[in-house]
Amino acid sequence: MTGRTVRLTMAQALVRWLCAQETEVDGRRVPLFAGVFAIFGHGNVTCLSEALEGVQDRLPTWRGQNEQSMALAAMGFAKAQRRRQLMVATSSIGPGATNMVTAAAAAHANRLPVLLLSGDSFASRVPDPVMQQVEHYGNPTATVNDAFRAVTRYWDRIALPEQIIGSLPQAVATMLDPADCGPAFLGLCQDTQEKAYDYPAEFFATRLWEIPRPRPDRRAVVRGVEVLKGAKAPLLIAGGGVRYSGASEAVAEFAARRGIPVVETIAGKGTLTHDHPAHAGPIGIVGSTSANALAAEADVVVAVGTRLMDFTTGSWTAFRPEARFIGINAARWDAMKHSTLPVVGDALETVQELDAALGDWAAPATHMERAKSLFAEWNALLDRHQAPTNAERPTYAQVVAIVNRWASPRDTVVTAAGGIPGEVMKGWRVKDPNTFDLEFGFSTMGYEIAAGWGHALAKQGDGMPIVMIGDGTYMMMNSDIYSTVLSGHKLVIVVCDNGGFAVINRLQQFKGVPGFNNLLKDCRTAVEPFPVDFAAHARAMGAESRHCEGLADLQAALGWARGTDRTTVLSIRTDAYAWVPGDADWDVGVPEVSERPAVQEARAAQDAIRRKQRVGV
After folding, report:
1. Contact assessment for residue 585 and residue 609, using Cβ atoms and an 8 Å cutoff
2. Which CATH number fits domain 5-208: 3.40.50.970, 3.40.50.1580, 3.30.420.10, 3.40.720.10?
3. What is the distance between the alpha carbons of residues 443 and 417, in angstroms, rounded to a whole number?
4. Is the predicted pLDDT of residue 2 greater than 70, yes or no?
5. What residues does the Thiamine pyrophosphate enzyme central domain cover (predicted)?
6. Which of 188, 335, 509, 573 has the fewest CB atoms within 10 Å, i.e. the most exposed one?
7. For the sheet containing 492-497, what is the strand order?
8. Does the domain made of 218-377 have the CATH classification 3.10.290.10?
């Protein structure tokens, strides 16, 4: 250190700066970056690893098994911490970097902060082309890291060591901004990482980051109040933004006081407990009959913290054409969708201001009574579908019910992609807020186990992650079972084996195509398809495991799993054709011309769906 400067390599300076950033979680001042998931290789092993090795006590590094799953684990951690504390994922150049692109897209779609650091080619270009470098003949500045531009909120390539002085704070500000939140990417040129520079000492001063709470424009609140006061059958849609702003309690109280039923999106499920008096179930394509009935009747829809994806809106068929929307969102883009009345602001601040401006207004009492009646019918339907039977194989619904009843209130269920999400979204009865993680914004197969690891890191004994996963997704990405055993972060993983990609087989056949290449029995094979021994596979990675022959066996195995000292995998064979009803319409592509009568019928049904769509922007 000389005077007011510190001479460090760029990699050393980057790591020292990360260590100096702090945030506040539940009143406690904690590191903003809780750790690093890393696979070292060409491009990050010689300089970045040297810097990280020296700060293991302040910024722990965890060795992943796959770059994509590391970044997915960072996503799970960010969800568990409600975007208040972050993880870093670092890779080599080339395939190590491109492995993280899918995870970056998932974080981008879900508005989740993850800092991605990949090695890059030489800024000098003297040794070009280096190993793993992809050359673009007409653009020598381009590398595979440019692929991250489309799937990150902040992107930069560090070609000079001093560039991190301006870039790192901007990356963090983006990740913590409720409106712009998403992943940030820095490509670290290999020769730049090694270069020493005299950094200003104040660059490394401890900094406390506070997540902003933008208040809404007063005029927008007044307009929102005017619209809501005219409602006879209002509905509140709670999205993920409610949870991330810490507005769950405020939304619950507001809804109960004003007599407005609350339905939840995929990201918003867990805003309320299942038995909250204002709760009316999940909405949309994997939603409940109760929520979808209320959506069809609503005259005013208050959409809080949701991006209104097609699975929420039934591809915009779930609502009356004349229904009016009030969009409460920190992001202007989301607040304005489909000609809604935008009220741009933090969910907590905005709901509180809207509540204060409503005076003594409340919706007609009969409206909440109808919501309760519809929700009671939905719960009765769930009970029927979740009740055990003498069928040869249990359904997803029955498995979900067994696991749900066994889970403690602070356990968090984690799932994504395939058939389980719909059954968990419909059938999981949340016992405590913020204990539900379903990644369906990008529907990322392979998220589940990796994200469970991220949740385990975040929970630190406050409940346990329960991963529910299908056989198809398990086969895609399971290596972090080994990571969790090595690191001592216990998960309970329930593998439902229904013989392939059963839910996409359902959609395929529903739209007129015979079962093809989805269930294993419908695939081109050289031998008779056979079931994988998932229990044996998990044991090979150091986990405890059991295969369960039925629901009673599963229930007993769950009791055993609670007491094991490491990640425990339970497998069970399940039915590939039984699903809980309640779905809304979905707009998907169906061939306009086909010789198959079944496809022709499906096309006619799809055209009917499109005629129901609410037209907006």
Report:
1. yes
2. 3.40.50.970
3. 5
4. no
5. 225-354
6. 509
7. 436-439, 412-416, 465-470, 492-497, 568-573, 544-548
8. no
